[in-house]
Amino acid sequence: MAPHRTPDSSRRSDRSRRAIHDAALALVGEVGYAKTTIEGIAARAGVGKQTIYRWWPSKAAVLMDAFLDLSARQAAEVDAAGADGDYGIPDTGDLEADLKLVLRATVDELNDPAAEAPTRALAAEGIIDPALGAQFVENLLDPQLQLYVTRLRAAQEAGEVRADVDPRVALELLIAPLTHRWLLRTLPLTHAYADAVVDHALRGLLVRP
């Protein structure tokens, strides 16, 4: 007779959370944020809506948690694929090439249908809900922006970027144009545009002979 095994509640909870995360991201991508409901997420994930309300107060909170989980998984995949396991902007000694590489990757991420709708929904909700907006900035944006600060400071220490440049302001010269074009859909967001942004920004950052 096989020994009785106690169900692993933590593993079951992890599976349910992942199913809810995946369902929330999928539904927002398919029908949009406005038409996504807690009931719809629960049905898609195969759980009761009471389960969702036990863990999250709103669909915005579900989406935020789902996006944080997605970002963590993507970072883990990058670490697993990298030789050193480092997650950040590369430092090859060529700031222009490194920035163009990471901004092109940002363009690809923003244009990815799987991430675009949830990102837009969180950005929009963050404007309406200050608490959610602060969480969006603290947990999603700031860690990514800090990577730019680190790389720009390294370029300053190498004598490539002017010593009087504020890295926090400088990174916004790179990120803000992409965000503006993406949010407002003014023109296509392309690799060529990312390269042009780097070229224009560096004219004001680099030490000139």
What does this entry look like structurally?
- This protein is about 75% helix and about 0% strand.
- It contains 9 helices and no strands.
- The chain is mostly helical and about 210 residues long.
- It has helices at about 10-30, 40-45, 50-55, 60-80, 95-110, 115-130, 130-155, 165-185, 190-205.
Order of helices and strands: HHHHHHHHH
How far apart, in Å, are the first and last alpha carbons? Answer: 82 Å
Please tally the β strands and state the result: 0
Q: Profile the largest sheet.
A: none
Strand content: under 5%
Question: Whole-number radius of gyration?
Answer: 21 Å
Structural class: mainly alpha
Q: What is the typical, i.e. mean, pLDDT?
A: 86
Silhouette: elongated
What's the tally of helices? 9
Low-pLDDT segments: 1-7
Q: Helicity range of the residues?
A: over 70%
Please sum up the structure shown.
The chain has 209 residues and is mainly alpha-helical.
What does the secondary structure layout of this molecule look like, with pairings?
Blueprint (H helix, E strand, L loop, with lengths): L8 H23 L6 H8 L3 H7 L3 H23 L13 H17 L1 H16 L1 H28 L9 H18 L6 H15 L4
Features:
209 residues, mainly alpha, 9 helices, 0% strand, elongated, disordered N terminus
